[in-house]
């Protein structure tokens, strides 16, 4: 019993020495972040069988870009900010789907504060696989890291836009039916 008590006191003493004395990381101001949003017209991707009337009977898949996970962290030397973004999708398999997997084309665009100029644009493909007897799945993309200079004005004066990569017909469908 005495040995257990002595070990407990030693462990507590060792832990008490951790993190003391120096400046706390929690007191450091957080890294600045750009404004991150999903483009309303590009939040839905509905695919239909080629040549068919676009309705539920010809639907292969219906996907929605429903959100994202994001974090902004200074680089090791604090000379830059890395913005990490992972898109979140809800995907439904349509009645004419013939395979248990779909690939979702999407992009991230970095613009200036007024959306007047596209500074960077990157395209991605995220696979979505349906389990046995499953017609819906929620997935997150692999995180994408966007580097920014550390100067706050430069980071916060940018917009980051997420959207599906749509054909003109898919974009027209989204605009006709409106936000869902």
Automatic annotation (TrEMBL):
Residues 1-21 form the signal peptide. This is Uncharacterized protein. It comes from the Bacteria. Keywords: Signal.
